[in-house]
User: Fold these one by one.
Assistant:
Number 1:
Amino acid sequence: MKRHPALAHLSRDHHGALLLARLLQKDAPAYTGMPTDIAGKAAYALKFYNDELIKHFASEEAALKIVTGINATLDGLIATIFREHQDLHVSFQSIGDHPYLQTHLDELGKALENHVRKEERELFPLIETVSNDKLLETINQLLSPHL
Protein backbone atom coordinates (compact mmCIF):
# COMPACT_ATOMS: atom_id res chain seq x y z
CA MET A 1 0.00 0.00 0.00
CA LYS A 2 1.31 3.41 -0.92
CA ARG A 3 1.64 5.59 2.16
CA HIS A 4 0.55 9.25 2.17
CA PRO A 5 3.67 11.45 1.83
CA ALA A 6 3.05 12.99 5.28
CA LEU A 7 3.49 9.55 6.87
CA ALA A 8 5.91 8.01 4.37
CA HIS A 9 9.11 8.94 6.21
CA LEU A 10 7.77 7.44 9.45
CA SER A 11 6.90 4.34 7.50
CA ARG A 12 10.39 4.18 5.99
CA ASP A 13 11.90 4.34 9.49
CA HIS A 14 9.99 1.18 10.30
CA HIS A 15 12.21 -0.92 8.03
CA GLY A 16 15.16 -0.59 10.39
CA ALA A 17 12.95 -1.18 13.42
CA LEU A 18 11.54 -4.36 11.89
CA LEU A 19 15.03 -5.61 11.08
CA LEU A 20 16.04 -5.00 14.69
CA ALA A 21 12.87 -6.68 15.94
CA ARG A 22 13.61 -9.83 13.97
CA LEU A 23 17.30 -9.79 14.95
CA LEU A 24 16.38 -9.82 18.64
CA GLN A 25 14.06 -12.80 18.41
CA LYS A 26 15.36 -16.25 19.32
CA ASP A 27 14.51 -17.80 15.96
CA ALA A 28 16.17 -15.01 13.96
CA PRO A 29 18.27 -16.00 10.97
CA ALA A 30 21.79 -14.63 10.66
CA TYR A 31 21.78 -11.26 8.92
CA THR A 32 24.88 -10.23 7.00
CA GLY A 33 26.86 -7.67 8.95
CA MET A 34 24.65 -7.97 12.03
CA PRO A 35 25.64 -9.42 15.40
CA THR A 36 24.80 -13.04 16.10
CA ASP A 37 25.68 -13.32 19.80
CA ILE A 38 23.48 -12.09 22.64
CA ALA A 39 25.89 -9.40 23.84
CA GLY A 40 26.31 -8.08 20.30
CA LYS A 41 22.56 -8.02 19.72
CA ALA A 42 22.06 -6.19 23.02
CA ALA A 43 24.68 -3.58 22.13
CA TYR A 44 23.21 -3.13 18.64
CA ALA A 45 19.71 -2.77 20.09
CA LEU A 46 20.81 -0.08 22.54
CA LYS A 47 22.68 1.83 19.86
CA PHE A 48 19.71 1.67 17.47
CA TYR A 49 17.37 2.73 20.27
CA ASN A 50 19.51 5.70 21.25
CA ASP A 51 20.39 6.77 17.70
CA GLU A 52 17.07 6.11 15.93
CA LEU A 53 14.09 4.96 17.96
CA ILE A 54 14.00 7.71 20.58
CA LYS A 55 13.78 10.35 17.82
CA HIS A 56 11.33 8.25 15.83
CA PHE A 57 8.97 7.82 18.79
CA ALA A 58 9.11 11.56 19.52
CA SER A 59 8.34 12.45 15.89
CA GLU A 60 5.53 9.94 15.76
CA GLU A 61 4.00 11.20 18.99
CA ALA A 62 4.15 14.81 17.75
CA ALA A 63 2.33 13.76 14.58
CA LEU A 64 -0.27 11.79 16.54
CA LYS A 65 -1.07 14.79 18.72
CA ILE A 66 -2.13 16.62 15.56
CA VAL A 67 -4.80 14.02 14.75
CA THR A 68 -5.98 13.45 18.30
CA GLY A 69 -9.62 14.35 18.84
CA ILE A 70 -10.94 13.85 15.31
CA ASN A 71 -12.10 10.22 15.61
CA ALA A 72 -12.85 8.07 18.68
CA THR A 73 -11.38 4.90 17.18
CA LEU A 74 -8.22 6.75 16.23
CA ASP A 75 -7.98 8.26 19.72
CA GLY A 76 -8.12 4.79 21.27
CA LEU A 77 -5.44 3.52 18.94
CA ILE A 78 -3.26 6.56 19.63
CA ALA A 79 -3.55 5.93 23.38
CA THR A 80 -2.43 2.34 22.79
CA ILE A 81 0.53 3.47 20.67
CA PHE A 82 1.64 5.94 23.36
CA ARG A 83 1.48 3.18 26.02
CA GLU A 84 3.45 0.84 23.79
CA HIS A 85 6.10 3.53 23.25
CA GLN A 86 6.47 3.85 27.03
CA ASP A 87 6.69 0.07 27.43
CA LEU A 88 9.31 -0.11 24.67
CA HIS A 89 11.35 2.69 26.30
CA VAL A 90 11.38 0.72 29.56
CA SER A 91 12.33 -2.51 27.78
CA PHE A 92 15.21 -0.92 25.89
CA GLN A 93 16.47 0.89 28.98
CA SER A 94 16.54 -2.34 30.98
CA ILE A 95 18.67 -4.26 28.48
CA GLY A 96 21.91 -3.50 30.33
CA ASP A 97 20.86 -4.99 33.64
CA HIS A 98 18.33 -7.66 32.71
CA PRO A 99 19.14 -11.02 34.36
CA TYR A 100 17.61 -13.09 31.53
CA LEU A 101 18.93 -11.14 28.56
CA GLN A 102 18.18 -13.63 25.78
CA THR A 103 14.55 -13.99 26.88
CA HIS A 104 14.25 -10.23 27.35
CA LEU A 105 15.62 -9.54 23.85
CA ASP A 106 13.25 -12.11 22.35
CA GLU A 107 10.25 -10.53 24.09
CA LEU A 108 11.43 -7.03 23.13
CA GLY A 109 11.85 -8.09 19.52
CA LYS A 110 8.34 -9.53 19.41
CA ALA A 111 6.85 -6.44 21.09
CA LEU A 112 8.66 -4.10 18.69
CA GLU A 113 7.56 -6.11 15.67
CA ASN A 114 3.92 -6.18 16.83
CA HIS A 115 4.04 -2.46 17.53
CA VAL A 116 5.39 -1.53 14.10
CA ARG A 117 2.93 -3.82 12.35
CA LYS A 118 0.05 -2.23 14.30
CA GLU A 119 1.16 1.21 13.17
CA GLU A 120 1.53 0.14 9.54
CA ARG A 121 -1.62 -1.97 9.31
CA GLU A 122 -4.01 -0.08 11.58
CA LEU A 123 -2.80 3.35 12.69
CA PHE A 124 -1.46 4.87 9.49
CA PRO A 125 -4.34 3.67 7.28
CA LEU A 126 -6.84 5.05 9.80
CA ILE A 127 -5.04 8.40 9.90
CA GLU A 128 -5.10 8.52 6.10
CA THR A 129 -8.82 7.72 6.09
CA VAL A 130 -10.07 10.16 8.75
CA SER A 131 -7.67 13.09 8.22
CA ASN A 132 -8.27 15.89 5.80
CA ASP A 133 -5.59 17.32 3.53
CA LYS A 134 -4.91 20.22 5.91
CA LEU A 135 -4.13 17.88 8.83
CA LEU A 136 -1.90 15.71 6.68
CA GLU A 137 -0.07 18.79 5.42
CA THR A 138 0.43 19.95 9.01
CA ILE A 139 1.95 16.56 9.85
CA ASN A 140 4.16 16.77 6.78
CA GLN A 141 5.41 20.24 7.74
CA LEU A 142 6.05 19.13 11.32
CA LEU A 143 8.06 16.12 10.27
CA SER A 144 9.88 17.58 7.28
CA PRO A 145 12.76 18.99 9.35
CA HIS A 146 13.40 15.43 10.58
CA LEU A 147 14.08 14.05 7.11
Note: Helices lie at 5-24, 38-67, 72-93, 101-130, 133-143.
Number 2:
Amino acid sequence: MKTEKLVIGSFEIYGLRDGYFYLDGGAMFGIVPKTLWQKSYSADRQNRIKLSLNSLLIQTKKDLILIETGIGTKLDPKLLEIYAVKTKPGLVSSIRKLGFNVKDVNFVINTHLHFDHCGGNTYKNEKGEILPTFPKAKYIIQKEEWTHALHPSEREKASYLKENFLPLEKYGLVWFVEGNKEISDGVEVVLAPGHTSFHQCVKVQSQGKILFFLGDLVPTSAHIGLPYIMSYDLFPLDTLKTKKKYYEKAIEEDWIVAFNHDPDYYFGKIKKEGEKYKIKPYST
Protein backbone atom coordinates (compact mmCIF):
# COMPACT_ATOMS: atom_id res chain seq x y z
CA MET A 1 0.00 0.00 0.00
CA LYS A 2 1.32 3.43 -0.91
CA THR A 3 1.26 6.49 1.31
CA GLU A 4 -2.33 7.67 1.63
CA LYS A 5 -3.35 11.27 2.19
CA LEU A 6 -6.44 12.68 3.88
CA VAL A 7 -7.53 16.25 4.39
CA ILE A 8 -9.24 16.90 7.73
CA GLY A 9 -10.38 20.52 7.72
CA SER A 10 -7.17 22.54 7.37
CA PHE A 11 -4.92 19.59 8.26
CA GLU A 12 -3.15 17.29 5.83
CA ILE A 13 -2.75 13.74 7.18
CA TYR A 14 -0.53 11.08 5.63
CA GLY A 15 -0.76 7.35 6.31
CA LEU A 16 2.80 6.01 6.38
CA ARG A 17 4.26 2.56 6.89
CA ASP A 18 7.50 1.45 8.56
CA GLY A 19 7.02 -2.07 7.20
CA TYR A 20 5.45 -5.35 8.27
CA PHE A 21 5.86 -8.00 10.93
CA TYR A 22 4.15 -11.24 11.96
CA LEU A 23 2.53 -12.19 15.27
CA ASP A 24 0.75 -15.32 16.45
CA GLY A 25 -2.82 -15.23 15.20
CA GLY A 26 -4.25 -16.79 18.34
CA ALA A 27 -2.56 -14.20 20.52
CA MET A 28 -3.82 -11.40 18.30
CA PHE A 29 -7.46 -12.49 18.63
CA GLY A 30 -7.59 -13.72 22.22
CA ILE A 31 -10.66 -15.79 23.02
CA VAL A 32 -11.95 -15.64 19.43
CA PRO A 33 -11.41 -19.08 17.83
CA LYS A 34 -9.35 -19.50 14.69
CA THR A 35 -12.40 -20.73 12.77
CA LEU A 36 -13.69 -17.15 13.03
CA TRP A 37 -10.58 -14.97 12.78
CA GLN A 38 -9.14 -16.88 9.83
CA LYS A 39 -12.01 -15.51 7.74
CA SER A 40 -10.17 -12.18 7.94
CA TYR A 41 -6.56 -13.37 8.17
CA SER A 42 -4.77 -16.36 6.76
CA ALA A 43 -1.97 -17.67 8.99
CA ASP A 44 1.40 -19.01 7.91
CA ARG A 45 2.75 -22.43 8.91
CA GLN A 46 3.75 -21.04 12.30
CA ASN A 47 0.23 -19.68 12.87
CA ARG A 48 1.45 -16.10 12.42
CA ILE A 49 -0.50 -13.36 10.66
CA LYS A 50 0.83 -10.39 8.70
CA LEU A 51 0.53 -7.03 10.43
CA SER A 52 1.64 -3.60 9.31
CA LEU A 53 3.50 -0.88 11.18
CA ASN A 54 1.39 2.16 10.36
CA SER A 55 2.08 5.74 11.38
CA LEU A 56 0.34 9.04 10.75
CA LEU A 57 2.07 12.27 9.82
CA ILE A 58 -0.09 15.32 10.51
CA GLN A 59 0.67 18.72 9.01
CA THR A 60 -1.23 21.48 10.79
CA LYS A 61 -0.83 25.19 10.13
CA LYS A 62 2.06 25.40 12.58
CA ASP A 63 3.28 21.88 13.46
CA LEU A 64 4.36 18.60 11.93
CA ILE A 65 3.23 15.74 14.19
CA LEU A 66 4.14 12.06 13.90
CA ILE A 67 2.07 9.34 15.56
CA GLU A 68 4.01 6.09 16.20
CA THR A 69 7.48 5.23 14.90
CA GLY A 70 7.20 1.51 14.12
CA ILE A 71 9.84 -1.10 14.91
CA GLY A 72 12.79 0.93 13.69
CA THR A 73 16.23 -0.36 12.75
CA LYS A 74 17.78 -1.55 16.02
CA LEU A 75 16.05 -4.90 16.59
CA ASP A 76 18.53 -7.76 16.96
CA PRO A 77 18.67 -10.52 14.30
CA LYS A 78 16.98 -13.11 16.52
CA LEU A 79 13.88 -10.94 17.03
CA LEU A 80 13.86 -9.93 13.37
CA GLU A 81 13.57 -13.61 12.53
CA ILE A 82 10.99 -14.45 15.21
CA TYR A 83 8.69 -11.66 14.03
CA ALA A 84 9.62 -11.93 10.32
CA VAL A 85 10.16 -8.18 10.20
CA LYS A 86 10.24 -6.46 6.81
CA THR A 87 11.20 -2.81 7.25
CA LYS A 88 10.22 -1.55 3.85
CA PRO A 89 9.42 1.10 2.80
CA GLY A 90 10.69 2.36 6.18
CA LEU A 91 9.30 5.29 8.13
CA VAL A 92 12.12 7.81 7.66
CA SER A 93 12.29 7.04 3.95
CA SER A 94 8.53 7.56 3.64
CA ILE A 95 8.75 10.90 5.42
CA ARG A 96 11.53 12.06 3.11
CA LYS A 97 9.56 11.07 0.03
CA LEU A 98 6.91 13.54 1.13
CA GLY A 99 9.50 16.31 1.11
CA PHE A 100 10.03 16.49 4.86
CA ASN A 101 13.14 15.93 6.97
CA VAL A 102 13.43 14.26 10.38
CA LYS A 103 14.32 17.69 11.80
CA ASP A 104 10.99 19.08 10.58
CA VAL A 105 8.97 16.97 13.04
CA ASN A 106 7.82 19.02 16.04
CA PHE A 107 6.07 16.28 18.04
CA VAL A 108 6.20 12.48 18.15
CA ILE A 109 3.32 10.69 19.88
CA ASN A 110 3.72 7.13 21.14
CA THR A 111 0.42 5.46 22.05
CA HIS A 112 2.49 3.29 24.42
CA LEU A 113 6.05 2.00 24.65
CA HIS A 114 5.91 -1.52 23.23
CA PHE A 115 8.76 -2.07 20.80
CA ASP A 116 6.58 -2.17 17.68
CA HIS A 117 5.23 1.32 18.41
CA CYS A 118 8.32 3.24 19.45
CA GLY A 119 11.28 1.38 17.94
CA GLY A 120 11.87 4.20 15.49
CA ASN A 121 12.11 6.80 18.26
CA THR A 122 15.86 6.25 18.23
CA TYR A 123 18.54 4.84 15.93
CA LYS A 124 22.08 3.53 16.26
CA ASN A 125 24.78 5.49 14.45
CA GLU A 126 28.06 4.17 13.01
CA LYS A 127 29.76 4.58 16.39
CA GLY A 128 27.12 2.45 18.09
CA GLU A 129 25.56 5.44 19.84
CA ILE A 130 21.78 5.46 20.24
CA LEU A 131 20.39 8.84 19.25
CA PRO A 132 16.94 10.40 18.80
CA THR A 133 15.65 9.92 15.26
CA PHE A 134 13.71 13.19 15.42
CA PRO A 135 16.16 15.51 17.21
CA LYS A 136 13.97 18.63 17.20
CA ALA A 137 10.78 16.93 18.36
CA LYS A 138 9.16 16.57 21.74
CA TYR A 139 8.11 12.98 22.34
CA ILE A 140 4.66 12.78 23.94
CA ILE A 141 4.46 9.89 26.42
CA GLN A 142 2.10 9.21 29.30
CA LYS A 143 4.12 9.58 32.51
CA GLU A 144 2.74 6.42 34.07
CA GLU A 145 3.34 4.43 30.88
CA TRP A 146 7.00 5.47 31.10
CA THR A 147 7.21 4.42 34.74
CA HIS A 148 5.63 1.07 33.93
CA ALA A 149 7.94 0.53 30.95
CA LEU A 150 10.96 0.93 33.23
CA HIS A 151 9.59 -1.65 35.69
CA PRO A 152 7.52 -4.15 33.69
CA SER A 153 6.29 -7.48 34.98
CA GLU A 154 7.78 -10.73 33.76
CA ARG A 155 4.75 -11.21 31.50
CA GLU A 156 5.44 -8.09 29.45
CA LYS A 157 9.15 -7.48 29.92
CA ALA A 158 9.99 -8.58 26.37
CA SER A 159 7.69 -5.90 24.93
CA TYR A 160 9.63 -3.00 26.44
CA LEU A 161 13.10 -2.29 25.03
CA LYS A 162 14.62 0.62 26.93
CA GLU A 163 16.88 1.71 24.08
CA ASN A 164 13.72 2.82 22.26
CA PHE A 165 12.80 5.47 24.81
CA LEU A 166 15.29 5.92 27.65
CA PRO A 167 17.85 7.89 25.56
CA LEU A 168 15.18 10.51 24.82
CA GLU A 169 15.28 11.66 28.43
CA LYS A 170 19.04 12.22 28.23
CA TYR A 171 18.50 14.67 25.37
CA GLY A 172 15.60 16.45 27.09
CA LEU A 173 13.10 15.46 24.42
CA VAL A 174 10.37 13.81 26.52
CA TRP A 175 7.14 15.65 27.26
CA PHE A 176 5.41 13.65 29.97
CA VAL A 177 1.63 14.02 30.04
CA GLU A 178 -0.88 12.75 32.58
CA GLY A 179 -4.25 11.90 31.09
CA ASN A 180 -5.90 13.77 28.24
CA LYS A 181 -3.81 16.63 26.89
CA GLU A 182 -3.93 18.96 23.89
CA ILE A 183 -0.55 18.77 22.17
CA SER A 184 -1.16 21.31 19.42
CA ASP A 185 -4.23 23.17 18.23
CA GLY A 186 -6.67 20.44 17.25
CA VAL A 187 -4.47 17.49 18.26
CA GLU A 188 -5.14 15.81 21.61
CA VAL A 189 -3.99 12.61 23.28
CA VAL A 190 -6.74 10.78 25.19
CA LEU A 191 -6.45 7.88 27.58
CA ALA A 192 -7.72 4.57 26.21
CA PRO A 193 -6.80 1.95 28.83
CA GLY A 194 -6.87 -1.79 28.37
CA HIS A 195 -3.93 -2.82 26.24
CA THR A 196 -1.81 -1.13 28.91
CA SER A 197 -3.06 0.91 31.85
CA PHE A 198 -2.01 4.19 30.24
CA HIS A 199 -2.38 3.47 26.55
CA GLN A 200 -3.37 6.64 24.70
CA CYS A 201 -5.16 7.31 21.42
CA VAL A 202 -4.97 10.51 19.39
CA LYS A 203 -7.91 12.73 18.47
CA VAL A 204 -7.46 15.15 15.59
CA GLN A 205 -10.07 17.89 14.98
CA SER A 206 -10.26 20.62 12.37
CA GLN A 207 -13.21 22.55 10.98
CA GLY A 208 -15.75 20.15 12.45
CA LYS A 209 -14.10 16.99 11.13
CA ILE A 210 -12.53 14.39 13.44
CA LEU A 211 -9.96 11.63 12.96
CA PHE A 212 -9.18 9.18 15.76
CA PHE A 213 -5.99 7.10 15.81
CA LEU A 214 -6.85 3.85 17.58
CA GLY A 215 -3.40 2.51 18.43
CA ASP A 216 -3.69 -0.96 19.96
CA LEU A 217 -7.23 -0.36 21.19
CA VAL A 218 -8.38 -1.72 17.81
CA PRO A 219 -5.19 -2.77 16.02
CA THR A 220 -6.83 -3.84 12.74
CA SER A 221 -10.22 -3.56 11.09
CA ALA A 222 -10.75 -7.26 11.94
CA HIS A 223 -10.73 -6.32 15.65
CA ILE A 224 -13.80 -4.11 15.44
CA GLY A 225 -16.04 -6.69 17.16
CA LEU A 226 -16.29 -6.09 20.89
CA PRO A 227 -14.96 -9.55 21.93
CA TYR A 228 -12.05 -9.29 19.48
CA ILE A 229 -9.43 -8.34 22.05
CA MET A 230 -5.78 -9.35 21.95
CA SER A 231 -4.24 -11.72 24.48
CA TYR A 232 -1.50 -9.10 24.72
CA ASP A 233 -3.94 -6.73 26.44
CA LEU A 234 -3.15 -6.53 30.15
CA PHE A 235 -6.68 -5.49 31.09
CA PRO A 236 -9.12 -6.93 28.51
CA LEU A 237 -12.26 -5.84 30.36
CA ASP A 238 -10.96 -2.28 30.33
CA THR A 239 -10.35 -2.64 26.60
CA LEU A 240 -13.98 -3.70 26.21
CA LYS A 241 -15.26 -0.66 28.11
CA THR A 242 -12.98 1.68 26.19
CA LYS A 243 -14.06 0.28 22.82
CA LYS A 244 -17.73 0.80 23.69
CA LYS A 245 -17.06 4.34 24.86
CA TYR A 246 -15.28 5.49 21.73
CA TYR A 247 -17.39 3.52 19.26
CA GLU A 248 -20.51 5.39 20.27
CA LYS A 249 -18.75 8.75 19.95
CA ALA A 250 -17.27 7.75 16.59
CA ILE A 251 -20.70 6.90 15.21
CA GLU A 252 -22.45 9.93 16.69
CA GLU A 253 -19.81 12.40 15.45
CA ASP A 254 -18.94 10.58 12.19
CA TRP A 255 -15.25 10.09 12.99
CA ILE A 256 -12.69 8.68 10.61
CA VAL A 257 -10.63 6.13 12.51
CA ALA A 258 -7.04 5.14 11.76
CA PHE A 259 -5.51 1.70 12.28
CA ASN A 260 -2.07 0.95 13.67
CA HIS A 261 -1.55 -2.60 12.33
CA ASP A 262 -3.98 -3.16 9.49
CA PRO A 263 -2.07 -4.25 6.36
CA ASP A 264 -4.90 -3.29 4.00
CA TYR A 265 -6.47 -0.14 5.41
CA TYR A 266 -5.14 2.98 7.04
CA PHE A 267 -8.58 4.48 7.61
CA GLY A 268 -12.19 3.49 8.16
CA LYS A 269 -15.53 4.49 9.65
CA ILE A 270 -17.40 2.61 12.35
CA LYS A 271 -20.99 1.60 11.67
CA LYS A 272 -23.50 -0.33 13.75
CA GLU A 273 -25.68 -3.03 12.22
CA GLY A 274 -28.14 -4.31 14.79
CA GLU A 275 -26.02 -5.07 17.84
CA LYS A 276 -22.78 -5.51 15.90
CA TYR A 277 -20.15 -2.96 15.00
CA LYS A 278 -18.68 -2.96 11.52
CA ILE A 279 -15.87 -1.14 9.74
CA LYS A 280 -16.33 0.54 6.41
CA PRO A 281 -12.93 1.22 4.79
CA TYR A 282 -12.37 4.89 4.06
CA SER A 283 -10.15 6.48 1.47
CA THR A 284 -10.09 9.63 -0.61
Note: Residues 236-252 form the longest helix (17 residues).
